[in-house]
Specification:
disordered C terminus, about 35% helix, alpha+beta, single chain, 7-stranded antiparallel β-sheet, Beta-lactamase, 7 strands
Length: about 300
């Protein structure tokens, strides 16, 4: 079982001030308990601490393909979640189902059964910015209705995206709505950066116009050190297991500064993640802070696999 998030903070989550106050209180409590002895280091019933159990950081030079920074297992494949909105936008623009940053505008339908935050009219810019799942599903369904049920799979294969498996969950016939959401479609950080490089080098089987329109709607963020990052998050929460709750998140895209353009893919799995947060935005916040140290360590501090 998994729960796919729309890459936003869940309603009712704590604000920054409350989180800071909670952290101070937790720190004080830990000191008091530690002084009381090892047996009382954690209060009964306290939530287990969050712990990153798997992380890949991969940064490559777009022009040359040279590795700038790599840390962790970047060859393992994971469900792309909402990072799939990047290739899906390209498919939409190339097939004419999408025509511009604000065209078309599709109205929310109650049959979509989306979170309340997504009960709104959505255009391509809003779709990428707010990570609206129902818009993705509607785009794929309209492609299938117009060009046939197999058209979606043909496009994913044409783009050489990950394992290219759009069958969906076994026995559920939901490939057109769920293949990329904790389901059959998988991609590695290595493959993600390769796709981003191709997108930026106009090296994909689509028109220059469709590629340019796709790049234009990817959200932009200011990072530390004067870097500007363009990228898409992806998130999913795994149901509680014997080892505790787990989630996984992505932040995938490209960074620019002083004439340099770097493609990046960061993926992370966390055990006992903070309640009320989607993994992708949580990961993005750390990437915006840490990106300069990766960009300036050419070929450095890596454990490639």
């Amino acid at each position: 079982m998994s729960r796919v998030w729309s890459d936003g903070v869940i309603a009712g989550s704590l604000g920054a001030g409350s989180l800071a106050a909670g952290s101070l209180a937790a720190g004080f409590l830990a000191v008091v308990l530690l002084a009381a002895g090892p047996a009382r280091a954690q209060a009964p019933g306290a939530a287990p601490a969050a712990r990153v159990i798997d992380r890949c950081v991969l940064v490559v030079d777009v022009a040359s393909g040279a590795r700038v920074h790599r840390d962790g297992d970047c060859g393992a494949r994971h469900a792309p979640e909402s990072t799939f909105k990047v290739p899906l936008a390209l498919i939409g623009f190339e097939t004419g189902l999408l025509t511009g940053p604000h065209d078309p505008v599709w109205r929310y339908d109650g049959s979509f059964k989306a979170p309340k935050r997504d009960h709104k009219d959505v255009d391509p810019v809003i779709w990428e910015r707010d990570s609206v799942v129902w818009f993705s599903r509607e785009l794929v369904k309209r492609l299938a209705a117009r060009d046939g049920a197999g058209a979606f799979g043909v496009w994913v294969a044409r783009l050489n995206y990950g394992n290219q498996d759009v069958s969906g969950d076994p026995g559920k016939n939901n490939g057109l709505t769920n293949a990329w959401l904790s389901s059959s479609l998988k991609i590695s950080p290595e493959e993600q950066t390769a796709f981003v490089r191709r997108l930026l080098r106009d090296d994909l089987p689509a028109s220059a116009q469709a590629i340019g329109k796709t790049r234009a709607i990817i959200p932009e963020f200011a990072a530390e050190g004067g870097w500007t990052l363009h990228g898409k998050t992806g998130s999913s929460e795994v149901a509680k297991t014997a080892d505790g709750r787990q989630d996984h998140g992505w932040f995938v895209g490209w960074a620019q500064k002083d004439g340099r353009t770097l493609a990046f893919a960061i993926h992370e799995r966390t055990r006992n993640p903070p309640a009320g947060e989607a993994a992708g935005p949580r990961l993005r916040a750390s990437v915006l802070r840490d990106f300069p140290k990766w960009a300036e360590q050419v070929g450095g501090a890596t454990t490639p696999k």
